[in-house]
Specification:
Blueprint (H helix, E strand, L loop, with lengths): L1 H14 L10 H33 L6 H26 L23 H9 L2 H29 L5 H20 L4 H54 L4 H29 L2 H6 L1 H10 L5 E6 L6 H22 L4 E8 L2 E8 L13 H10 L3 E5 L6 E8 L7
Parallel strand pairs: 1-2
Antiparallel strand pairs: 2-3, 3-5, 4-5
Length: 401
C-alpha cells in the first residue's frame, strides 16, 4: 500500500515537471547573446548620432560646428570598429577593417594641417556609413531584443531558427555598412598616402641637384672665372707669358672637371643612354661601374613608358650601389623581363646578406617609390646570403613624342 501511494505521488509530481528542452549549440547561444545586446548597443549608437553628429551639423554655421562634426565622424569609426569586433566574436562575420585616415600625411611624412585633417574626416565615407548604421539600428534593436526575450520563455523550440534568421539580417547589415565598400576605397586611401611620397621624393631630388650644382660645377666655374680674370689682368699689365700660360692651363683643367661633373649630374637626372638606347643598354652601363662583376639579362619585347623605364633604371642603380658598398659579394646579376602587364626586376648577389627595409641603406625609400606607382618591392636576404631583391612595376606602353 505504501509503495502504491509513493508511485502515485511520483506520477503526480511528474505531471507537474516542465517540458523537456533540447540543448542549444554554442553558436546559437552566441547568436542569442548578440540579439539581446542589440538593444543597448542600438540605444547608445542612436543617442551618439543624435547628440554629437546632429548637434555638429546644426552648428555648422558657427566656428565649432565643422570641427565638432568631424570629431563625431571620427568617433563613429570607433563605434564601427567595436560593432565589427562584436559581429566577429558572436556571429563569425569576418570583414576587413577600413583603411585608417592618413591624418599624418601618409608614408611620405608630409604633415596635414588642422584644416586638412578636418576636411579629410568630413569626407570620410566609412564614418558616414557607420552613422547610417547606428541611426537605423534602434527599431531593429528593439524588435530583435523583444522577439528573442519572448522566445526564451514562450517559443523555445523555434528559438534556434528565429535566432539564425534575425542574425542573418545583422550579418548583412555589418557586411553592407561596416565593411570597406570595395577595393577602390582602399586604393584611394593608399594613393592619398602615397602622394606625399612622390612630392617629397621630387623635392629631395631637387635639393640634391641644387647641392651638387652649388658644391661642384658652380664652384669650379666661379674659380674658372676668377682665374681667367687674373690672367686677363696679367696680360694687360704685360706680365710674363709663362705665368699667363700656367693660369690658362689651370683654367682649362677646371673647365674639364666642371664638364665631367655636369655630365655626372645629368646622368643622375636621366642618363642619355637610357633615352637613346633603352633599359638594356642603360643597365649594362650602370653594371659596368659596379665594383662587383654583374651579369645583366633583359628580355623586353618593347620599351615601357619613359616614367616606368626611369624608375626601373634608378631602382637597379641604387641596388647595385648597395652591392658595391655593403654586400661583400663576389658576383651579382640583374634580370629584367615582362610578365603580362607587369615589369619584373630581380637583382641577386652572393654577399653576406642581412639586408632589411629598415637597415639604413635606402631600401625603405625604394619600397616607397615603387609603392607610389602601384609597384611591389620584396627582399629575401638571410644572414650569410645570398640576397635577392624582386621589384614589380606596372607595364605601361611607351608613347613616342
Amino acid at each position: 500500500m505504501t509503495a502504491r501511494i509513493t508511485a502515485t505521488s511520483a506520477e503526480a509530481e511528474g505531471d507537474r515537471l516542465p517540458p523537456v528542452r533540447f540543448a542549444l549549440e554554442p553558436h546559437t547561444w552566441k547568436e542569442i547573446a548578440h540579439l539581446l545586446a542589440n538593444l543597448p548597443m542600438a540605444l547608445f549608437g542612436f543617442v551618439y548620432v543624435v547628440t554629437v553628429v546632429s548637434t555638429g551639423a546644426f552648428l555648422t554655421l558657427t566656428v565649432v560646428g565643422l570641427p565638432m562634426l568631424a570629431a563625431g565622424l571620427m568617433g563613429a569609426r570607433l563605434l564601427g570598429r567595436f560593432e565589427r569586433a562584436r559581429a566577429r566574436v558572436l556571429l563569425g562575420v569576418r570583414v576587413d577593417e577600413p583603411s585608417p585616415l592618413p591624418l599624418g600625411g601618409g608614408r611620405g611624412g608630409r604633415e596635414l594641417g588642422v584644416f586638412g585633417q578636418m576636411m579629410l574626416a568630413l569626407k570620410d565615407p566609412v564614418g558616414w556609413r557607420t552613422i547610417l548604421y547606428d541611426f537605423i539600428r534602434l527599431p531593429w534593436g528593439i524588435l530583435t531584443f523583444t522577439l528573442t526575450l519572448v522566445s526564451l520563455f514562450v517559443l523555445w523550440p523555434v528559438l534556434p531558427f528565429l535566432a539564425r534568421a534575425l542574425t542573418n539580417v545583422d550579418r548583412a547589415m555589418v557586411r553592407g555598412l561596416l565593411s570597406p565598400s570595395d577595393e577602390l576605397e582602399r586604393r584611394i586611401a593608399e594613393l592619398e598616402s602615397d602622394r606625399g611620397v612622390v612630392v617629397d621624393t621630387a623635392a629631395a631630388d631637387l635639393r640634391r641637384i641644387e647641392r651638387d650644382l652649388h658644391d661642384g660645377a658652380q664652384a669650379r666655374l666661379v674659380n674658372l672665372a676668377m682665374g681667367l680674370g687674373l690672367a686677363k689682368e696679367k696680360l694687360l699689365e704685360g706680365q710674363a707669358d709663362e705665368q699667363v700660360a700656367a693660369m690658362v692651363d689651370e683654367a682649362h683643367g677646371e673647365v674639364k672637371l666642371a664638364l665631367q661633373e655636369l655630365r655626372d649630374l645629368a646622368r643622375g637626372i636621366h642618363p642619355a643612354v637610357l633615352t637613346d638606347r633603352g633599359l638594356d643598354a642603360a643597365l649594362s652601363s650602370v653594371a659596368s661601374r659596379c665594383t662587383v662583376p654583374v651579369k645583366v639579362s633583359a628580355d623586353l619585347p618593347a620599351r615601357p613608358a619613359a616614367a616606368i623605364e626611369g624608375i626601373a633604371y634608378f631602382t637597379v642603380s641604387e641596388l647595385l650601389q648597395n652591392i658595391s658598398k655593403h654586400s661583400g659579394a663576389r658576383n651579382a646579376s640583374v634580370d629584367v623581363w615582362r610578365t603580362d602587364d607587369r615589369l619584373l626586376i630581380q637583382v641577386w648577389d652572393d654577399g653576406r646578406g642581412g639586408a632589411r627595409l629598415d637597415g639604413g641603406t635606402g631600401m625603405a625609400g625604394l619600397a616607397d617609390r615603387l609603392g607610389a606607382v602601384d609597384g611591389l618591392f620584396v627582399i629575401d636576404s638571410p644572414e650569410g646570403g645570398p640576397t635577392t631583391v624582386t621589384a614589380e612595376l606596372p607595364w605601361r606602353e611607351r608613347v613616342e613624342a
